[in-house]
């Protein structure tokens, strides 16, 4: 069975070669990407292959992405193929001014999820079990915030969250706010949708930039995490760049009330694209198995932060978001060596 159900976009990243600005770049290399897709593949590489609901265009880039997901062990059960062009994300050179990503292509194809197509059967134990030899638990559900920039994505996300809540399963939500994808006049609708998703989640992940852009909080660090918990989740995880990550949880969390920090690892970075997604995959691969831990034991949360930071540290050693996520044994060896 799949322990985790991931939903969200899959797209193509155009990663720049040498050049200080977009005008000076010599060329680009296309790589598979999209935050939820990176998380899904990261989980598979870390030994927890998820179910993944996503949409791919019927063009050559869509075929490229379909082949990539299949090669990474992602089941095609919930991978939809639709008419239209795949969204392309042009990555800016490190240090360049302006947004990190520029998006091109059909937003309807990649982000226009159909709320009537939400695979609710995958959110039940019966829908995910591959064998009747042992009882199964409903899967953890993870989704990202970029789909909320599209009306269809917003409606589908609401439907997915309602189904997850009705089934009583844990939900994690990555804010991942991209202001350049929000159409003119839709700022209020998107911000409201982000707030609703945070409120209906158990675990929320973000950076302080995500939350500030979405209008959720102007604080940072522990105060930001506490602000997010006020919306409803029992745990808030905040990535802090070179300083690692921190998490704050309430008494409602399986690991009890806690404030945990992990300073990350000093490594030589080649490309930070997708490092946050690698962190999320590492974190979720540990938290999803920690739901049955003894109440009040913060060690699962502390271990998950360390594992997430180690996964992210290893991912920045090569170019590209999805392809740079390490295998579980690599992360374990890295942790054993560093700690």
UniProtKB/TrEMBL annotation:
GO terms for molecular function: ATP binding; fructokinase activity. InterPro entries: Carboh/pur_kinase_PfkB_CS (IPR002173), PfkB_Carbo_kinase (IPR050306), PfkB_dom (IPR011611), Ribokinase-like (IPR029056). It is an enzyme of class 2 (transferase). Gene3D superfamilies: 3.40.1190.20. SUPFAM superfamilies: Ribokinase-like. Keywords: ATP-binding, Kinase, Nucleotide-binding, Transferase. Residues 1-327 form the Carbohydrate kinase PfkB domain. It comes from the Archaea. PROSITE patterns: PFKB_KINASES_1. Its EC number is 2.7.1.4. Belongs to the carbohydrate kinase PfkB family. This is Fructokinase. The lineage of its organism: Archaea, Methanobacteriati, Methanobacteriota, Stenosarchaea group, Halobacteria.
